[in-house]
Each structure stands twice: as structure tokens, then as C-alpha cells.
Amino acid sequence: MTIDTAERNRFGAAAAPARFADIPILQPGRGLPDGATYLPSSPETVRWGRLPSGEDEPVLTITSGETIIVDTVSHEGLLPDQGQDPVAFFAQHGVPAGAVLDDAVAIAASVPRDPVADGPHVVTGPIRVEGAQPGDLLRITVVALEPRVPYGVISNRHGKGALPGVLPRSGRTVSVFAPVEERAARLVGALPATEGGARDVVFPLAPFLGTMGVAPAGSERAHSVPPGAHGGNIDINLLTAGSSLYLPVQVEGALAYVGDPHFAQGDGEVALTALEASLRATLRFDVVPAAAAERAFGRIAGPLVRTADHLVPTGLDPDLDEAMRACTTEAIALLQARWGMDEHLAYAYLSAAVDFDISQVVDVVCGVHARIREADFAAIEAADA
After folding, report:
1. Residues near 266 by Cβ (< 8 Å), separated by ≥ 6?
2. Distances from the Cα of 220 to the Cαs of 52, 55, 186, 266, 272, in angstroms?
3. Which of 89, 163, 215, 301 has the fewest CB atoms within 10 Å, i.e. the most exposed one?
4. Which residues, other chains included, contact 159 with Cβ-Cβ below 8 Å and sequence gap of 6+?
5. Given the DSSP bridges, would you call strands 173-183 and 186-191 parallel, antiparallel or unpaired?
6. Quick one: 366 exposed, middle or buried, by C-beta within 10 A (0-12, 13-18, 19+)?
7. CA distance 85 to 354
8. In terms of pTM, does the model score above 0.90?
9. What does the angle CA 121 – CA 125 – CA 127 come to, to the nearest 5 degrees?
10. Domain ranges of the chain
11. Cβ(324)–Cβ(313) under 8 Å?
């Protein structure tokens, strides 16, 4: 069913009517396949603005190789500067109460969060993976991602985008509502070129989870915004369905977690957020033993992404130049370990053949990732993991 409704923007001025794609509302627990291992995002299974620590109790325990379904929840529409009432916030944009997720409402109403000290993200977990030990890698394979709603929000809040002190001009928070529409048989986000105008600017959806990680050792629950060796809010838009993320395990059981669902994001994420919206994620968790991991990739210091075509080492640092250096160093080390390249030849190859992309510049710690085509090395045998 396509819904036509009158919409109002955050300033109360009349805006062009929103049209919503015929996407079913995936309320928690509904429409699941028979026999699925399911993890909801509920007040009992999430943290709001903090990541699980190495001493937290798991909300789910699984075996290596197991596939689970997680209903992730976006923070947009839940935050205090948006009223902390998702039903009221989305009603301003023509979304009926029944199309607002029940778990989003429950989290906004009852999950504790310090609005000054904590991050914005709703993080689901931790998930204990039996057999995972420090030194191993945890491989999280993204099997499928389904939109739970036909709308999302892009926010530039508190001057924390790539242009601090310049944007936003209109105040401390600008939240831009974007319905999902179906055009030319594909799902797109739709924006107007001018406030209140027709939604003539469209861009394709490419859903991914901005946050996937493992718990660091110790009892401290890390802030949800800056990424690190543990993964976390890495915001790498290559992590769409079919890709995998490898993370160095830091505590027994790995204690994995996911969150920060996106419908679409450009590299850089310059306004602060992507098109943020809730996703139903089907994920497989595999333990890669330390010896096999080292044979395949060498010693990796942080997140490593694998797509159908690329191996993607990463670099993370508050200084973007240092993040670039870190990514280059990781890429050279990977080429040496996996394919036996001499250091100077690896450096030359990276310069000639590899794109280094800015993952994001808005999460305190900047991210850079390199896309190494595995097909370039088809003639060289390599261990796999």
C-alpha cells in the first residue's frame, strides 16, 4: 500500500506530501521465518549510547557458524532534541502511529541514557559466540538486511558535521525526514531541492549496519560514537548484504554487538548522520582461529572488511592524515602476509591500483578504508579464512 499524507517539516511550514513505498512494517518479532534464532532490540537487550564491556553478561549465546536475526533500531526520532517520542516526531511527517516501531517507542521511554555523556546509538547485544578466544578473529557475515519501515532521517545536529561553525545555520539541530519511495522498480530515498518542494532528488538505498563490534577487555562501557580496534561505529558503507567484517577478538566469547542501521550513506557522512532507519539484519557469526587468521591475513590490528570483490583494510585516528597513514600501513602488511609482496612493491601497487576512501569524518575518530581487488592476485595462491 502506498500512502499519501500531508507532511509538515520541523519548523511547521507546509511541505510536499510524502509518498511511502509499499514496505511492510516489521514490528518486533513479526514475520520471522520458522525456527529462526531471534534477538529483539528491547530495553533488556540494548544499551543507548554505550557499547558492551568485556564484563557484561550476554543477552544471547550462540555457536560458531550460527545465523541469527536481529531487529535493529535507529536512534533518529528517539533523541531528546527530537522530543524523545517517536510517535509524535514521525506524526509531524505523516507517519501513522501504527507505522512507528514498538521497540523504538519502548527504548525511547525506558532505556537510560545520559544526554551529555553518552552517544546517540541504540546498540544491541552483547552476543556470546562459543569458542571465541583473544587472538582469534570473529567474522560477521551480513546475510540479509531488510528495511523495517519506509522512511528515515538525516540529521545535522549541534554543529558536529564536517562544517562545524558553518552548518547548521538555522539552529542546533536540523533533522531532514526522507520517505522511501519506489521509482523505476527500485527503492530510493527522496528529498526536495528546496524546503517544501517536490521530492525530485532521489538516491538508491544501500542498507548496512554502521556499528558492528566486539567488546574490549575490562569493565568500561565505551562511548558509542568513536570506532576503534574493537570495531564499533565504523560506518563503512561496503558492509551491505553479502559482505563480511573480521574483528580481532579481545575477550572470551567475543561479546559482539550491532546497531546504527542505515538505509544509505555517502563516504564521509559529512552532515553527521546518514539516512538513518531501522533494519532487520540476518547475520552469521564464525570464529576464525588465530593460526588460520594469521595465515590468511597476517596480524590485523583492527576491522577488516571483505566484499565479493575486495579486501578492505582500515585506518582509524582522530587525525584524518594519521588515519590515512594507518590504513596504508595495514594495507601493505596485508599484501605482504597474504600474497608475499615485497614492501616496496606493495606500496607501488597501492598507489597504482587501490582506492583509499574516507569512511567518515564525523565520529571523533576518522576512518579511511582501502579497496584491494582480490582478482588482481588470482595467479597467487593464498590461504583463506
Report:
1. 237, 274
2. 8, 8, 43, 32, 26
3. 163
4. 165, 167, 168, 172
5. antiparallel
6. buried
7. 45
8. yes
9. 150
10. 4-288, 293-377
11. no
pLDDT at residue 11 greater than cutoff 50: no
Judged against a pLDDT cut of 50, whether residue 14 lies above it is answered with no
Q: How far apart are CA 125 and CA 68, in angstroms?
A: 12
Distance CA 53, CA 55 (A): 5
Q: Per-residue pLDDT tens for 311-335?
A: 999 999 999 999 999 999 999 999 9
Which is it for strands 66-71 and 37-39: parallel, antiparallel or unpaired?
parallel
Name residue 372's amino acid.
I
Positive or negative torsion for Cα 288, 136, 329, 318: positive
Superfamily of domain 4-288: Acetamidase/Formamidase-like domains (2.60.120.580)
Across the chain, mean pLDDT equals: 94
Q: How confident is the model at residue 116 (pLDDT cuts 50, 70, 90)?
A: very high
Q: Which residue has the cell 582522530?
A: 318
Q: Provide CB contacts within 8 A for 312, sequence distance 6+.
A: 236, 238, 304, 305, 306, 369, 370, 371, 372
- Asked if the domains 4-288 and 293-377 are classified in one and the same CATH topology, the answer is no
For residues 89-98, give the mean pLDDT. 96
Instruction: Cis check for the bond before 126: say yes or no (omega within 30 of 0).
Output: yes
> Can you read off the three cell numbers belonging to residue 376?
588482481
Q: For 137-145, what is the mean pLDDT?
A: 98
Q: Is the pLDDT of residue 83 over 90?
A: yes
